[in-house]
Give the backbone structure.
Amino acid sequence: MSAQLTVQRSGQPREGGFIGGGTVAWRHVICFVLLAYGLAWAIWAPLAPAVKDALWDGRTPDNFAATPAVTLGMYAPALAAVLMRLFISKEGLRRALGPLPSLRIALGAVLIPMALILILVVTVAATNIGDATPGKPLGALLAILTFVGVPVGTALAFGEEFGWRGYLLPRLLPLGEVKAAIIVGLIWGPWHLPVLIVGLNYPGEPIIAVLGVFCLSATLLSLLHTRFYVASGYSLIAVSLLHGSLNTFSDRLTDTNHLSGNPLIVGGGGVIASALVAVGILITYRVLVRRKSS
C-alpha cells in the first residue's frame, strides 16, 4: 500500500470504521451528539448556580475554578462513544484506537502546538498587546511541559478524542474531510458552553463574545485535528497527542500568570491564536499529505 489514506468506496475506514457504506448514518450521529451533550452537561450540573449568575451579569467570572466535575465531564464523549459502539451502532470496541502514529506524526502532534503557542507569545510581546512572563528558563520550562505536561494532557484529552474524532468524525467523513471537520467543530465548540460561561479560557469577558471566539477556535482546531487523524491512518493516539499538547502549552504559557491582556485576543483560544492555527492548517495540509490506497 502506498502512503495515502482515503475513504474506501464501501465507506469503511480501515481502522475503526463508520457505518452505512458511503453515506452518513445520521441517526447514529444525532444519538451520539445527544449522549455526549447530555452526559457532560449532567455531570456539570453543579455549575448551574455559577452559570446562572454569569448569564445574569452577561460576563464570565473573573476567575475560573476547576473542579473534579469539570474534569470528569471531559470524558463524557468517550462514554457516549462506548455506549454507541456497544449498544446502538454495535460495531464494538475492536480497533477503536486505530494504529499507532508514525514518529513523524507523533512529533508533529507535539511540536506544532508548541511552535504555535510560542509564536503567539512572541507576537503578543512584540506588538505590546500584552506582556509575556514565562517565569522559568524557557528551555527548562518547555522540557517539563513536553515530557511531563504533554503525557498528562494527552490522557485528559483522550476523553474527548475517543468521542469526537474516534466516533463522530469517521461517520461524517463521507461528506468530505473539510466539511466533516467543520461540522464536528460546530458541535464540539458549543458542547463546552457550561464551562465557558463559568470562566474557562476567557475570564471576565462578555459571554456572547466568548462563545463566538471559542466556536471559531474550535472549528479551526477541528480542521487541524482532522488532518492529523486522516493522515495518521485514523489514529486516535495521534489526535489525542495533538489535543493534549495544545492544552498543555496553551494552559501554561498563556494563563493569566504568564501572559497578560484580553484573553479573547491574546489567549490560547483567542483571535491571534486562531489566525496562527489557520496558517498552521495550511502548512499541515501541505506537509501531511493524504496517503493513496494502491
Notes: The chain has twelve helices and no strands.
